[in-house]
Amino acid sequence: MCGIVGAVAERNVVQILLEGLKRLEYRGYDSAGVALVDTNNHNKLSVVRRTGKVIALANAINETNGLGTIGIAHTRWATHGGVTEANAHPHSSEERFAVVHNGIIENHKSLRDMLTQKGFTFTSDTDTETIAHSVALHMQSTDDLLSAVQAAVKSFKGAYGAVVMDQTTPEKLVVARSGSPLVIGLGIGENFLASDQMALLPVTRRFIFLEEGDVAEITRTSVKIIDGNGDIVERDVVDSTVEHDAGDKGGYRHYMLKEIHEQPLVLRNALNGRVSSEGIAPGIFGEGADEIFKQTSYVKIIACGTSYHAGVTAKYWLEQYANVQCDVEIASEFRYRRSYVPANSLLITISQSGETADTLAALKLAKEIGYMSSLSICNVDGSSLVRESALSFLTRAGAEIGVASTKAFTTQLAALLMLVLSIGKHKNMDPTVSANIVKALVSLPAKLEETLALAGEIENLAEEFSDKQHSLFLGRGDQYPIAMEGALKLKEISYIHAEAYASGELKHGPLALIDADMPVIVVAPNNELLEKLKSNVEEVRARGGIMYVFADKEAHFESDDTMRVVQVPHCMESVAPIVYTIPLQLLSYYVALIKGTDVDQPRNLAKSVTVE
Ligand code: G6P
């Protein structure tokens, strides 16, 4: 989703801004722009914007010869106003103030009316332009940019992470955060800011994460932060622990393929020091976690997208193995409904980014309505969700660049199995079951390596999907959410319509759709539901459906005219959802490759959805 980069330095910042934007490309965007106080053009405010990729913007800036020691830049993912150059950020006012903004100013219509009445002329359809003119309005009664921004934000309703630059004071940037993340990057004699630390890793690894309500003034040598109460505050400086370099595809054609193949490695990292043949290590969910788990009698999991599918899988596991009641809900639903909170409820949020607006809002609500405690399972240390939850657990997947989530999902599942063991300890979990889960987890990285060897076979099979418009994914029990995730992956990157059903629901509707043009993908490990699943397969066969079955050898499926069987390495039941995810990821990747879509940045989608 939208990305922000800003810099104030002694050197030319154009390349820093462009490199920052490139590093944010993975988040998804449709246009990009840069504003500079242009030393090659009499220190005038120079704004260059382009629809399409950052490379088009870089070419345009090359042509203008733009140069400056202070600048702001943005990748836009359209919310208000179409994808046009005029709607791209930065937006400016009076050829003096430039603004980049993530989030949505919800009262932009009334602000636009008020500002128009006061003589400001709008040149875009965006909500963001109201920020530029509001700052200009408040600068009529002060000569201090920080005070003008503080006054302006008081009139905004909604979410914003915004950066303001004033051409007449080209030594400072002013930023404001409410609802959309912003991080300040500290250099030596230069400072930076961004919506995501990834953007700044080539120039610094020292960061200050702004908090809700903060407004800050940043110069080359100073950072002044004022909190929501108007007090000057010091915020911690954090050394980044992000290890992976976003710029490296490691020889793979796409980040997504690289990330699929990284899964054995990142799973090893995720398990390291937490589970071994000795069992689950104590205290891995943080200080006080055991006390909280002991008291927990109900778990509510909240997430969006792929992370939601991890949550649905965990519901099966927590109830089946750890004897604790669990419900799962999509964050955007939970946050806007009145829900019942049983006593001793633990709220668990799952998120790759830790910045998903709906998930953050759900956490905030849960605190208000009486949840006993909160735990975040997240891939990004220092993210808003991690900072705002009582307990946090990092999935250690490393930076995930492909918009379609892969390794983040399987590490979330591993984290959730570790949670099952940690909560189960306090809930009379059967020791044989927990010993089996430990064993399954320890051997999981090797099992994933074995499963990745199916890539060639799945690449061949993908040919058969290239002319299909629709598809159906079937699974039962804890494989139902895996079927959901498989369908999501296929639709996200190949644009083939895909639906997932719990196989038992087949005859309650989707059976009507079955014909030779509707491939049916079945996940069939060898578990107690296998015979039921086989009956569902026969129902599809009887209606002329063509099936692609991912099955355990012991499940005894045979390929024939109507069924292609891919044998998945035999694995223990508890980790089967993780193992069966791999072939479905590979299938969607190879189908997308044949269809020639933009695998890493699928159309209309964003990696981190920071607006609701
Ligand atoms: C977006 C991404 C998905 C992701 C979802 C939730 O839709 O494209 O891949 O699953 O957001 O994101 P989170 O960072 O909270 O896991």
From TrEMBL:
<dbReference type="Pfam" id="PF01380">
    <property type="entry name" value="SIS"/>
</dbReference>
<keyword id="KW-0808">Transferase</keyword>
<keyword id="KW-0963">Cytoplasm</keyword>
<dbReference type="InterPro" id="IPR046348">
    <property type="entry name" value="SIS_dom_sf"/>
</dbReference>
<feature type="domain" description="SIS">
    <location>
        <begin position="289"/>
        <end position="429"/>
    </location>
</feature>
<dbReference type="GO" id="GO:0006487">
    <property type="term" value="P:protein N-linked glycosylation"/>
</dbReference>
<dbReference type="GO" id="GO:0005829">
    <property type="term" value="C:cytosol"/>
</dbReference>
<dbReference type="InterPro" id="IPR005855">
    <property type="entry name" value="GFAT"/>
</dbReference>
<dbReference type="InterPro" id="IPR001347">
    <property type="entry name" value="SIS_dom"/>
</dbReference>
<dbReference type="GO" id="GO:0046349">
    <property type="term" value="P:amino sugar biosynthetic process"/>
</dbReference>
<dbReference type="GO" id="GO:0097367">
    <property type="term" value="F:carbohydrate derivative binding"/>
</dbReference>
<dbReference type="InterPro" id="IPR035490">
    <property type="entry name" value="GlmS/FrlB_SIS"/>
</dbReference>
<dbReference type="Pfam" id="PF13522">
    <property type="entry name" value="GATase_6"/>
</dbReference>
<keyword id="KW-0315">Glutamine amidotransferase</keyword>
<comment type="subunit">
    <text>Homodimer.</text>
</comment>
<feature type="active site" description="Nucleophile; for GATase activity">
    <location>
        <position position="2"/>
    </location>
</feature>
<dbReference type="InterPro" id="IPR017932">
    <property type="entry name" value="GATase_2_dom"/>
</dbReference>
<dbReference type="InterPro" id="IPR035466">
    <property type="entry name" value="GlmS/AgaS_SIS"/>
</dbReference>
<dbReference type="InterPro" id="IPR029055">
    <property type="entry name" value="Ntn_hydrolases_N"/>
</dbReference>
<comment type="function">
    <text>Catalyzes the first step in hexosamine metabolism, converting fructose-6P into glucosamine-6P using glutamine as a nitrogen source.</text>
</comment>
<keyword id="KW-0677">Repeat</keyword>
<dbReference type="GO" id="GO:0006002">
    <property type="term" value="P:fructose 6-phosphate metabolic process"/>
</dbReference>
<feature type="domain" description="SIS">
    <location>
        <begin position="461"/>
        <end position="602"/>
    </location>
</feature>
<feature type="active site" description="For Fru-6P isomerization activity">
    <location>
        <position position="607"/>
    </location>
</feature>
<dbReference type="GO" id="GO:0004360">
    <property type="term" value="F:glutamine-fructose-6-phosphate transaminase (isomerizing) activity"/>
</dbReference>
<protein>
    <recommendedName>
        <fullName>Glutamine--fructose-6-phosphate aminotransferase [isomerizing]</fullName>
        <ecNumber>2.6.1.16</ecNumber>
    </recommendedName>
</protein>
<dbReference type="GO" id="GO:0005975">
    <property type="term" value="P:carbohydrate metabolic process"/>
</dbReference>
<keyword id="KW-0032">Aminotransferase</keyword>
<dbReference type="InterPro" id="IPR047084">
    <property type="entry name" value="GFAT_N"/>
</dbReference>
<dbReference type="GO" id="GO:0006047">
    <property type="term" value="P:UDP-N-acetylglucosamine metabolic process"/>
</dbReference>
<feature type="domain" description="Glutamine amidotransferase type-2">
    <location>
        <begin position="2"/>
        <end position="221"/>
    </location>
</feature>
